[in-house]
Predict the 3D structure of the following.
Amino acid sequence: MQMKFMRLAVKEALFGVIHEHGGPFGAVIVKKNKVIARAHNTVLKDNDATCHAEVNVVRKASKKLKTFDLKGCEIYTTCEPCPMCFSAMHWANIKRVYYGATLADAKKAGFNELDISAKEMKMYGKSKVELKEKVLCEECLIPFGVFKKRKGKKY
Amino acid sequence: MQMKFMRLAVKEALFGVIHEHGGPFGAVIVKKNKVIARAHNTVLKDNDATCHAEVNVVRKASKKLKTFDLKGCEIYTTCEPCPMCFSAMHWANIKRVYYGATLADAKKAGFNELDISAKEMKMYGKSKVELKEKVLCEECLIPFGVFKKRKGKKY
């Protein structure tokens, strides 16, 4: 684990919130200590409910590596993955996910979260994706702070 | 519910299996009895693990309707949605999903399914997406039959 990758994910999240009025979420995919792809939530920008940061970054990394199989890759994401994003990681054979903020933080910010944690998804689904929580929590909450202050928010 | 929409989803699945050597899954989005979008699984064709039929059809319908909010829309899908696809439907505010084959059928065909049914996703996640199972089961299994007979399959 390297903090610099999570800080890059926070930077992505901030870019989305500040420049695109989007959701406060960012993610980075790393392989052998090299950044393969970075992305933020573009649900509003792209008019597409599937464009969470983690789904976007899986798509970008797959395009770059020219394979749907991202084995050996790790994801750094500012917020605990929702069930859609966790499952996308499972399908892409992502090895490990590091996350900071929690689904409870996302819910507090007004997002209509499904009530299933990443740990529950892993347990119920018997997935091999490894989960590492509480990574740079405070810094991962900064994009939420910027988001909360914005007027005329959309979800 | 109209059977013709599920038959269109089966046709999509067959197209993917026969012409693109892809997974045996198809889906159609309908609003007010009008087809908005149709899609099949393109994981192999697009080198992208998120390209399940249901995610693809949500993306297509959103593009067509120019909104991430697909309220009032229904999905007909040949197979029970996996947790990624169920969650994508939740985020897109899909009203109802009709499905034929089950995740057990997909598992039997060799897919590395997460062990969580659509009903469990709805129950655990407290989602409003309505589920209607066992719609044209036999016809929805036909693409699986074609898939199973193919040599050199990839998953």
In short: The mean pLDDT of chain A is 95.
